Amino acid sequence: MLLKIHGYYFLPEGKNLFLDISDTINKRYSTSTSTRNTDEIIRDIFERSQAILAKDPPFDVKANIPHIDNVRKLSIANRSLNPIVVYIYEDNNMVKGSPFASYSAAHKWLGLKPSSNTCNRYIDTDRLYKNKYIFSSKPIDSASKV
Hints:
3-stranded antiparallel beta sheet, 2 domains, globular, 7% strand, mainly alpha
């Protein structure tokens, strides 16, 4: 909760940590078996959260600014003059229609609601969405493909 309140979620390492926490919590709904020990996973998440909390927080909660206003302010400060472009890759190849001119267009192609938060959660994290897609704000050149 502290990670979210202080705005660490908006840092790349914060996003990845939240995705890992979500994956761990949601394993109970999965039919696949994990090879990693749960204690090891929790220890790793705890250590990473401590490292993130050691950084200066993006939000100053002592200023008593409502969370939504902090998010809006950070979003405006980080907004570039260029529109957000979303590149979607499947099996190291750009999908048909990619790059997309907006998160909404990418969401529509994925069959999601245009207002979904999926691209925001996964973009530039190198994490697979639905074990299938990688989202990037820049083209992934062939030299960086694994």
